[in-house]
Amino acid sequence: MNHRPFQDNMMFIPQLYPADAPYTQIIAQQGESKKPKRRRSKKNKGGENGASEANRKRKLSAEQVNLLEQNFGNEHKLESERKDRLALELGLDPRQVAVWFQNRRARWKNKKLEEEYSNLKKSHEANLLEKCRLETEVLKLKDQLSEAEKEIQRLLESGDRVPSNSSSSSQSQSMEAVDPPFFGVFGVDGYDDDVFYGPETHCMNALEWINLYM
DNA sequence: CCGGTTCCAGTTTTACATCA
DNA sequence: TTGATGTAAAACTGGAACCG
Length: 214
Prior knowledge:
This protein is an all-alpha fold.
């Protein structure tokens, strides 16, 4: 569990949250002598005698939620002093305010995670598309290369029939000199054939993936 | 070490909305 | 209208961390 972000607050919270805080008193008054267990009965009967409408209501009013939201917007953490002040202002138990902030932080965290996930997904999809585009480009270039090689071969063969001279031999030499780096640029060196013969499958998978999740 | 407090993650309970 | 079902919010539980 990660408590680090709250370390600083926790340094002084105990001083601000005395053992005889109002809620503890309430629990004591309700007759729970030892540890303030707050377990509810299965059905909320609104208190000991099961009754008043006010007690039975659990949902906070829009006004209460508004004020809580405002406070949460200012600061996600709730110091004891602010909790008590808010509770007084809203006519709520400080414990309720604390619980509300706790749940609100959890909702906020979930939302942030969802946003993060969504952004990562978008970025991943963009990368897949880019990868697909590049692979297609590699295929195109490979085709061009193949055509060029054929053309060279054709020229060389026709050149054999022509009386050889200095220019033709120099041409042949120059091609040999060009070939290795020319291939190297397209990654033939040190790459296996999948790089060139795999892309269609890869692109298909990428597009299927995107269709599946978009 | 202990008791009291906070926090969080996970769970349960409740209120409310929707739909057949 | 009503009961089943889903969902969001309120409340709870238990464990970890920290402090005096």
